[in-house]
Amino acid sequence: MEKRRVVITGIGAITPIGHSAPESWSAVCRGICGIGPITAYDPSGQKVKLAAEVKDYRAEDFLDKKEAKHMERFTQFALIAAREALSDSGLAIEREDAERCGVILSSGIGSLSNTEREHDRGTERGFDKVSPFYIPSTICNMAAGQVAIDAGFRGMCSCPVTACAGGTYAVGDAFHYIRNGYAEVMLCGGTEASITPLAVGGFTSMKALCTSEDPARASIPFDAQRSGFVLGEGAGVLVLEELDHALARNARPYAEVVGYGATCDAYHITAPRPDGSGGAKAMAMALADGGAAPEDVDYINAHGTSTPLNDACETAAIRSVFGAWARRLAVSSTKSMTGHMLGAAGAVEAIFSALALRDGFLPATIHYAVPDPDCDLDVVPNEGRRAALRCALSNSLGFGGHNGSILLRNWEG
């Protein structure tokens, strides 16, 4: 069977550096850092004081007060980004077969803040008195469900829960679903809102987070002084469409999705394989899936978390796949600006990769200061730059050994 072509026709995002996809991308191009002191709660009793929060967020600025009332923050973010993506695409469900339109939207954690609140309530009043909305508003798949309800999409609706790789899995799975003929349109991406005392404490106790109180030296991927990631939040949603379907309605593609690879390290619950072989295989699979040679890729949006293990392992993986071409590649981490958005990260980074291709612009790894010989690639230090780009890879490597990589090609019409 001939494989169908798939393009990105709509994007939406709400991130620590912007309330929309264009606003977030503008901040990336200017090298804006979204990391600052935690305001969601008082962190004075904890080691970690910084996070990458969505700034100046009020649900009522985006959503009807009534609809937002029983919708948790991670679901609100997803709905906001999905509505933006659909509006951007110009797609109207009234003119579509709703059963050929689906949703794949990841969240790694769901609403941990609601679990914290309802646990306190149950402790005080008895656990049979917790809110009847606790379960349906907290579970990870509810963002996908709410987006499908809002959009009227009646096809497949799923939620990959693969930690930090979830957003990439969602985009990759949606790509294959359309390419293989099961749908014409998919809303896909990821959402997260877990800047809470319990989440921050949990990540801190496992020594995953940076404890610096200097935003300029906190999320510093590939830097020799990196010491952990900074927790972020937000959502990214893309509209993927079968090419002929998109062109028939005069849609404007941002980029073409051409390859996807997913593997498991099968090694450790949190640490990657030291040789990076799992991530390398995912990248190689994405290239093979897209019929691309290593030399066709000009940019990699790295997972680049700013942890000692990840960045060195990802560098080793890139070297093993790209060989001598790795020296010619630009490999940057936009987590230096957004922090680590967990289940939303891969989706937001797929959006940034598509926009990098469209605009011919390489995002920087900001706040890079001390080179690490184990991360000796062109990390686009501190300032983005113009470049002619043909293909871009976006990598995600999650706890549990989940690895995902998607390959995008510049859309030339």
From TrEMBL:
Pathway: Lipid metabolism; fatty acid biosynthesis. Keywords: Acyltransferase, Fatty acid biosynthesis, Fatty acid metabolism, Lipid biosynthesis, Lipid metabolism, Transferase. One of its GO terms (cellular component) is cytosol. GO terms for biological process: fatty acid biosynthetic process. It catalyses: a fatty acyl-[ACP] + malonyl-[ACP] + H(+) = a 3-oxoacyl-[ACP] + holo-[ACP] + CO2; (9Z)-hexadecenoyl-[ACP] + malonyl-[ACP] + H(+) = 3-oxo-(11Z)-octadecenoyl-[ACP] + holo-[ACP] + CO2. The active site is at residue 164. InterPro entries: 3-oxoacyl-ACP_synth-2, Beta-ketoacyl_synthase, Ketoacyl_synth_C, Ketoacyl_synth_N, PKS_Beta-ketoAc_synthase_dom, Thiolase-like. Its EC number is 2.3.1.179. GO terms for molecular function: 3-oxoacyl-[acyl-carrier-protein] synthase activity. Residues 3-410 form the Ketosynthase family 3 (KS3) domain. Signal peptide: none annotated. It is an enzyme of class 2 (transferase). Belongs to the thiolase-like superfamily. Beta-ketoacyl-ACP synthases family. Involved in the type II fatty acid elongation cycle. Catalyzes the elongation of a wide range of acyl-ACP by the addition of two carbons from malonyl-ACP to an acyl acceptor. Can efficiently catalyze the conversion of palmitoleoyl-ACP (cis-hexadec-9-enoyl-ACP) to cis-vaccenoyl-ACP (cis-octadec-11-enoyl-ACP), an essential step in the thermal regulation of fatty acid composition. This is 3-oxoacyl-[acyl-carrier-protein] synthase 2.
